[in-house]
Amino acid sequence: MADDAHPGWALYDLGRLRANLAEIRRRIGPGQGCIVALKGNAYGHGAVPVARALDADGLAAFMTGSFDEACRLKSERLRTPVVMFAGALPAGMADLVDAGLVPTVVDRAGAEAAARAAPSGAAAPVYVKVNAGLGRLGVPLEAAEAFLAALAGLPNLEVRGLYTHLPFGDAHGRDWAARRLAAFDALLERLQDRGLSPPLTQARASACVAAGLSDRASAVCVGHLLYGLSPFADDSLADLSAYRPVLAEVGSRLIQVAAHPQGSDIAIGGSYGIRHSRRTGVAPIGVAQGLVRPVPGSRPEALIRGRRAPILAVSLEHMVLDLADAPDAEPGDEVLLLGGEGDGAIGLAELAAWFGMTPLDAVMTLSGRLPARYRDTRGGAAERTPLPGETRR
Ligand SMILES: *Cc1c(COP(=O)(O)O)cnc(C)c1O
Q1: Centroid of ligand 1 to alpha carbon of 133 (angstroms)
Q2: Residue 28: how many CB atoms within 10 A of its CB?
Q3: What is the 3-class SS of 9-74, one letter each residue?
Q4: How confident is the model at residue 272 (pLDDT cuts 50, 70, 90)?
Q5: Assuming Cys at both sites, which of 117, 190, 249, 324 could form a disulfide with 94, CB separation 3.0 to 4.6 Å?
Q6: Model confidence, pTM
Q7: Which residue out of 63, 104, 363 has the highest number of ligand 1 atoms within 8 Å of its CB and is therefore the one to mutate?
Q8: Hey, which of 129, 166, 206, 363 would you mutate to test ligand 1's pocket, going by the most ligand atoms within 8 Å of its Cβ?
Q9: Which residue among 165, 213, 220 has the greatest number of ligand 1 atoms within 8 angstroms of its CB, and so is best to mutate?
Q10: Whole-number mean pLDDT of the chain?
């Protein structure tokens, strides 16, 4: 097994991804469509595998922020349109249009550049982003109506979508988002009255959807909830137990097991010398694979043969585990940092807390450095579906 050469993996469950999407759709009802945010390599989960898994689901668009990532998605010949979040200078619009992507425009110069790049006889499709209060990117809400009226007069440009972003993490933010959604709704109403409303409109992302806020836009755009991650810092804002993290398992295997007799002058984790005999194991996973050193005072654990084993030390490429409760453990045994079955199972929130990360941070850092595996639980039984370039378990 190739895995023997350097055991370590992150396993993504595409069945959970689909179940999370189904739950989002149940929540928003049949009246609104769904855009999926694939930025940041699909929040670490792999933009191409996620896009492939959802391409037949009738989504309104895939959205991403990186040109490279968007080109990789385009080369998959997906049926779902690939739309770029704002990220390009006007001089870069031609590259996006030539690649068959739908750029986001936030000003007149960008819109004109996209129009100039349209193939002869055709119109370049764009989305327009409105700054409805976040204060980051977009045409100011107050100027959006005049902006769309001006774009309607530009030849070779087709405004396909109009969106904004109103993320929040606590109850104060929820009240702010409700006010800003109402202002965006009022804009949509004015645009509709003037016949300027693009076919797709969107304001709600995970936080608004999870908090049960509603609006009159035609679609939502989700990232966090789709991947089973909470958009909130404050867990009391909504019950998110219906969404399961798509990152289902992070693991490695023991490469050495050692017995240290009572009184050995060893230095595990900075404690020099031991009073009682001890068995330890080493797995080749550490800071280089995305872990950080544990929060002082936290007691991180891993699962070996279904039992929790304390993590005694994390170094650049290894971790040392205490095998006191796993006396039969031997080299080759799986070491699960995340996942497992039953009472001992280690959840993403627990893992993230031990290492002082948010669940999203944990997914992003671990995903970047460990080989990706995918499993598809469609129809119940777990079936692993290796993708090109990915190893089979
Ligand atoms: C990332 C992003 C989203 C999705 O946000 P989530 O909170 O992860 O659902 C929506 N809209 C924009 C503009 C984004 O950048």
Answers
A1: 15
A2: 18
A3: EEEEEHHHHHHHHHHHHHHHCCCCEEEEECHHHHHCCCHHHHHHHHCCCCCCEEEECCHHHHHHHH
A4: confident
A5: 117
A6: 0.93
A7: 63
A8: 206
A9: 165
A10: 93
Angle at 387 between CA 382 and CA 392, to 5 degrees: 60
Q: Which of 11, 10, 8 is nearest to 317 (CA)?
A: 8
| Ligand 1 centroid to residue 278 C-alpha, Å | 48
Assigned token pair, 48: 């191409």
Ligand 1 pocket residues where CB is under 6 Å: 37, 39, 85, 165, 167, 205-207, 221-224, 231
Which numbered atom of ligand 1 lies nearest the CA of 65? 15
Cα four-point dihedral sign 212, 217, 223, 226: positive
**From CA 173, how far away is CA 127, in angstroms rounded?**
26
pLDDT in tens, 170-208: 999 999 999 999 999 999 999 999 999 999 999 999 999
The values of phi and psi at residue 257, to 5°, are -125, 135
- Dihedral angle, C-alpha 172, 176, 179, 180, nearest 10 °: -160
CB burial string 133-156: b at 16+ within 10 A, e below: bbeeebbebeebbebbeebeebeb
**Cβ(254)–Cβ(283) under 8 Å?**
yes
Per-residue confidence (pLDDT) for residue 248, from 0 to 100? 97
Tell me what the mean pLDDT of segment 92-108 comes to.
97
Other residues' Cβ atoms within 10 Å of the Cβ of residue 22: 12
Nearest atom, ligand 1, residue 207 CA = 7
Query: Quick check: helix, strand or coil at residue 332?
Result: coil
Q: How far is the CA of 297 from the centre of ligand 1 (A)?
A: 34
Q: Which tokens sit at 213?
A: 């806020």
Long-range contacts: 95-98, Cβ < 8 Å, 24+? 95/67, 96/67, 96/70, 97/124
175 CB neighbour count, 10 Å cutoff = 11
